[in-house]
Structures are given as C-alpha cells and as structure tokens.
Design brief:
Layout: H1 7-14, H2 28-41, E1 50-51, H3 54-61, H4 65-77, E2 81-84, E3 88-91, E4 97-99, E5 105-107, E6 114-115, H5 126-137, H6 153-165, E7 175-178, H7 181-192, E8 198-203, H8 207-215, E9 219-224, H9 232-242, E10 246-249, H10 263-276, E11 279-283, E12 309-314, E13 326-329, H11 332-343, H12 351-362, H13 364-389, E14 394-395, E15 403-407, H14 413-422, E16 425-426, E17 428-429, E18 442-446, H15 451-468
Parallel strand pairs: 6-16, 8-9, 8-10, 10-11, 11-12
Antiparallel strand pairs: 1-3, 2-3, 4-5, 7-13, 12-13, 14-15, 15-18, 17-18
Helix pairs in contact: 1-3, 2-4, 3-4, 5-12, 6-12, 7-8, 7-11, 9-10, 13-15, 14-15
C-alpha cells in the first residue's frame, strides 16, 4: 500500500476501532484518530500515504463526516497528518519521533522500553573475538576494489558446507551473500516476480515479507495456518488453484507461530509447485534454533529436482541482527542472475562483515548450542509468567525459534499494544502479521529478552489488559512504533 489508500481499504485496516467497552465514553473522533495513529505506529499504514477524503472515509465507515473531520483535525494537531486545501491529507512523522533502524518510527525517549516487538537476541560474547580475527584477515583483501557481488569465497564455502551438513549438497557457486535475509528476499523478488505478480503466503506471516511484496505490488493470496500448523490438503489445493508465480514459506519454526513443517509435506509442496510452475522462496531464518532436542526434517531443497526452490537465510537470529549477513541458495545460473540484479542495488556486502561471519560460523556449534540453552530458559520463563498472570490466553509451546503466538481472550491485540506502551512495553499486535486488519485475537511474544525482563513485561501487560475492560473515560495517547 503506497501513494494513496482508499476509504474501503482504510476501513478494513481500522477494524473494530471503537468496539471495546473501555472506549464507550470516548468520542468517536478520538477513537478513530487513536486507531489511525496505531496503524501508523506499527507500520500497517505507511508514512507519506494520502488518506481518503473525509466524505469517502465517512461513507466507508458509515459514520458522519463531522466525526472524520474532527479525527483528521486531531491527527494534524498531534503531527500525524499534513493537509493542503484541494490536494488532500498525508500521513507524516511527528516532530517528537525519529525513524528507527527498522524503518518505522519510534519516540525519542523510548530507550527504557521493554521491547517485545523485535524478535532478535543481543550479540554473543564470541562476536568480539570474531571481529578481532576478521581485522587480522582483512589485509589480504585490501589490494583489490572490495566488490564481491556474490560474496567472498570463504563465506560462500562456509555457508555451502552448512547446507551439506544438513543433507543438501551445495557448492559455493550456489550461494550468494547478501546484507541480511530481508535483502536476500528483496533481490529474489526483483529477479523472480514482475510487478503485480501473484504470490502465496502463509497467514500469519513475517510482516517485513509482506512489506517487500507490497513494494512489488504483488497480488497476495494466503494459506491460513491452523493451531497445529499447515493443513496439507488446503496448502496444496491453494497452490493448484491459484497457480502463483511465487510462494513464500517459513517451514522451520514459522514466524510468528513457531510451527515446524513435517518432511512429508515438504516433499509434497515441492512436487505441487513444480506441477503448477510455482517457484518456492523458503525462509530459513530460524533453522539453527531447534529447542528441546527437536530433530529437524530435511531442508525443502532436498526434494527439489527442477530448480524451483530458492532458500534464503542469515545470521540475524542465531547470531546478531547488527551483523547484516544473509544469503541465497539457488542454482548457480540463478545466483549469477541475482548478482546482475544486485549490481544495480548495492554492489556487494562489506568485506569486513563477511570475514566476521566466517569466524562465527567456524565456531557455530558452540555459539548456537549456547543460544538454544538461553532461549529455552527464556521461553519457559515467558510461558510460566503467562500461565500465572494471563491464564485465559492460549499458547502452543514452540519446538524452536524465538516466538510465541498467543491467542488472547478477546479481539484486543492492537488496543492492548497501544496501552502497553504507556507502561513501557512494546508489542507486535496480531494484525501486523496478516492482511487488512485481521488477527486481532492474536499477539506475537518473542522470548529474546532476559527472563526477568520477560516476567516483568507480562506483569505490565496483565495490568493494562485488565484496564481495557474497565469502564471509564479512555485516556488517549500518542502511540509509537512496533518493529
């Protein structure tokens, strides 16, 4: 969604914008303005997009134009909307906010926030050692220009060896190093998806993948995940009926649900994709993080005989998000075509970062084992706190990854996220992981913070959840980013 949003589109995103009991005494215009601010805060409504005219939105919401006029006026007063007579109104960044590293926006004074919006760990202690070793290796690269569109050979070989260890023979020529997994996805979409092309995704799915697809103006269809994961017949039926150009799937500890796709379904998905001419983009961001001794099925690429599977992954989840190293595994000709596309985007990834990655991967067994122990402890702490403070919420214990997908006791996800920020907790509400404002009964909760912080965060969330159901005048605030 870029440029302009129509009234019916915004109405879908707004959802139940004034349906909570605790909001009954608030003016409708304040409820509407607050919900628009929430959509801006968590990225569902971009900055710089033109909102529908007042009359158009009033008709879409079936409310009076006076209510919409008052809501737009309040948004202008809080710095979220700029209007020009005869030209329309555009969303904007408030003056007391900044653009964060996520590309979304956040208050200037949010440094003490318990951030459950980002599903990523702090850096491991081995990173400093790897960085020092990388600096010592750097001189042998300084005699050249430093541009390596597919990545330095040491790192490509290390990534290829990791695939081979998982049962998928891979050569360095089949690996392209990128500046993170999101960059890998963007390059694949540039190569394989024409603007307006059709794509099948899981629902819920990774919000930044949806953003990348929106950037390509993709026509998105969804396969809804059940409580226990993928429904094989429905997923395969969706592939056969819609025949999308691409399907984007997260088979290992799916983000946000944590589901693990069984081996039999992986094989059937590859066969179905080949039959209908669909390329599979397989996101393996969490493949290194099985918990509780969970045994991983073979990689999806094991079942590929026709170059239909393009795998993407990276080091953000098992290692550190600040190390912007990702990769694409594809056929050697596809990698060369990706490199040609990349030259027009960012040329190459930094050599020093790639050398750091080489040293971290050399110590992968020890680092990842420590991460798994850490994540299991933090997951159990989060589960225990939820069971004690929010027993009506339903959570399936994930067998790996870094997130819980909680089903709430009511359609209050966005309202809860806005209220939680007032007590210093940032949340990623369910609608961030779907299309058109759905999944208000769900909330993603990563267990990447220390256990004590997770317990404290749940206590604060429980307090504001109780307050949402209390009658009384709602205090509206200016929401911040969810990343």
């Amino acid at each position: 969604m870029t440029g302009q949003v129509r009234g019916v589109q915004l109405a879908r995103l707004l959802g139940q914008w004034h349906a909570l009991p605790g909001r009954r005494r608030s003016p409708d215009y304040a409820a509407l303005a607050g919900t628009v601010r929430g959509l801006l805060a968590d990225g569902r409504l971009p900055l710089g997009v033109r909102l529908p005219a007042e009359r158009e939105l009033a008709e879409a919401l079936r409310i009076s134009r006076t209510t919409v006029t008052a809501a737009y006026r309040q948004l202008r007063e809080t710095g979220h909307l700029a209007s020009r007579r005869g030209a329309g109104s555009w969303t904007m960044l408030p003056g007391n906010h900044r653009v964060a590293s996520t590309g979304l926006w956040t208050p200037l004074d949010d440094r003490e926030m318990l951030d459950l919006g980002v599903a990523a760990l702090a850096a491991p202690p081995q990173l400093l050692t790897a960085a020092r070793a990388a600096v010592e290796d750097l001189p042998r690269y300084l005699g050249g220009a430093g541009y390596h569109p597919t990545g330095i050979i040491e790192l490509r070989e290390a990534v290829a060896d990791a695939y081979a260890a998982r049962g998928l023979p891979t050569s360095a020529d089949q690996i392209m190093v990128t500046s993170g997994t999101q960059h890998a996805l963007d390059l694949v979409l540039r190569l394989a998806l024409a603007p307006g092309g059709s794509v099948l995704v899981e629902s819920p799915t990774y919000p930044n993948a949806l953003a990348a697809l929106a950037g390509r103006r993709a026509r998105i269809t969804t396969h809804g995940l059940a409580a226990d994961g993928w429904e094989p017949d429905l997923l395969l039926g969706s592939l056969r009926q819609t025949r999308p150009k691409l399907a984007y799937l997260i088979p290992e500890f799916q983000n946000p649900t944590g589901h693990l796709m069984p081996a039999a379904l992986r094989e059937r998905v590859v066969a179905a994709a080949h039959a209908v001419g669909t390329d599979l983009v397989i996101d393996e961001s969490f493949v290194d993080l099985p918990l509780d001794g969970t045994e991983l099925p073979p990689p999806v690429g094991v079942y590929d005989r026709h170059s239909r599977v393009i795998s993407i992954g990276g080091m953000s989840k098992p290692y550190w998000g600040g190390l912007r190293i990702g990769w694409v595994r594809a056929s050697a000709p596809q990698v060369q075509r990706l490199a040609a596309v990349r030259v027009g985007v960012d040329m190459a990834s930094p050599v020093l970062d790639q050398l750091v990655a080489v040293h971290l991967l050399a110590d992968a067994d020890a680092i990842v084992a420590e991460r798994r122990v850490q994540l299991a402890v933090q997951r159990d702490a989060l589960l225990g706190a939820l069971a004690q403070r929010l027993p009506d919420w339903r959570v399936t214990v994930p067998r790996g990854g870094v997130t819980l997908w909680a089903e709430l006791d009511g359609p209050v996800s966005s309202a809860l996220a806005r209220a939680a920020e007032e007590v210093g907790v940032r949340l990623a509400p369910g609608p961030r992981f779907g299309l058109d404002g759905t999944m208000e009964r769900f909330l993603r909760l990563p267990f990447t913070l220390p256990a004590a912080d997770l317990v404290e965060a749940v206590g604060r969330i429980a307090a504001v959840r109780y307050d949402l159901d209390r009658t009384g005048r709602q205090r509206w605030r200016e929401p911040a980013v969810i990343a």
